[in-house]
Amino acid sequence: MASLKDLRARIGSVKSTRKITSAMKMVAAAKLRRAETRAAAARPYADAMRRMLAEVARSVAGEGGQPALLTGTGQDKVHLVVPMSSDRGLAGAFNSNINRTTRNLVLKLQAEGKTVKILPVGRKTYDFLSRDFSDLIIDHRHLAAGKEIPFSAAAELGEQISSLLEKGEFDVCTLVYNQFRNVMTQTPTEMQLIPLALPENDNADSAQVAAYEFEPDEGTLLSSLLPRNLQVQLYATMLETAAGENGARMTAMDNATRNAGKAIDRLTLKYNRTRQTNITNELIEIISGAQAV
């Protein structure tokens, strides 16, 4: 049985841990509000740009000489997987979900006879994938730290991917990231970046599709907009990742704070019972000694 001194030390230790987790929860909550606002603001722009490019791509469908960012290389042999995680832990299952989804995707592609290359974004996914797929990693990047994620981080990543495509390093590029839905839910999502995945229009919505007039011509627009679209989609997913990370961390720290409170209650109850037992035993010894005299 633990002594009273040991129990007091454990209670003090858990109380200190609860203070830390409570503080981390409040910090994550403050960061979440800013990150959620930025992600929500970027989402409509990214969706609108994706829909506009889909309309332009449909108008030039079947024509030759289309940009590689739109059609890829025309083959399906080499796949570039770009998983995006956070640089820090203590965020529950946020990073492990991305790692598991990426691992399953890589194994699936390899089972189909594809060549896989990996470009991790975020220290956690890089550390995880380095253990099993170190020979497949061609480079890695850290997710931009600080209060705000600069657009230049997405621009540099987009330029690197475009450069790899121009060199013929891959045929298909797939992005794996956590889509932020709410504080409790971040959904691992696979998005095909290259070739450009065109959304399908349902018959019910076909009458609502806007008609576009292009100036200059569609080919010139695609050549200038496709690299920008790649950067915008990457930036939007970076913002989604930042919001999801803070949401997951806030939830994890809230659960840790609650569990620490329950542990303190159990240890306090055990401390009081042990203390009462010791007092009772001392009283019995005193009474027994007095009776013996």
Automatic annotation (TrEMBL):
Q: How does it sit in the membrane?
A: Peripheral membrane protein
The record's section on InterPro entries has: ATP_synth_F1_ATPase_gsu, ATP_synth_F1_gsu, ATP_synth_F1_gsu_CS
According to its UniProt record, where is this protein located?
Cell membrane; Membrane
Q: Which GO terms describe its molecular function?
A: ATP binding; proton-transporting ATP synthase activity, rotational mechanism
Q: Which UniProt keywords apply?
A: ATP synthesis, Cell membrane, CF(1), Hydrogen ion transport, Ion transport, Membrane, Transport
Q: Check the record and name the Gene3D superfamilies matching this protein.
A: 3.40.1380.10, ATP synthase, gamma subunit, helix hairpin domain
Q: GO BP, one example?
A: proton motive force-driven plasma membrane ATP synthesis
Keyword Acyltransferase in the entry? The reply is no
Q: Where does it sit, as one GO cellular component term?
A: proton-transporting ATP synthase complex
The job of this chain, per UniProt, is described as: Produces ATP from ADP in the presence of a proton gradient across the membrane. The gamma chain is believed to be important in regulating ATPase activity and the flow of protons through the CF(0) complex.
Give the family, as the similarity comment puts it: Belongs to the ATPase gamma chain family.
Q: How does it assemble?
A: F-type ATPases have 2 components, CF(1) - the catalytic core - and CF(0) - the membrane proton channel. CF(1) has five subunits: alpha(3), beta(3), gamma(1), delta(1), epsilon(1). CF(0) has three main subunits: a, b and c.
* Protein name per UniProt: ATP synthase gamma chain
Q: Gene that codes for this?
A: atpG
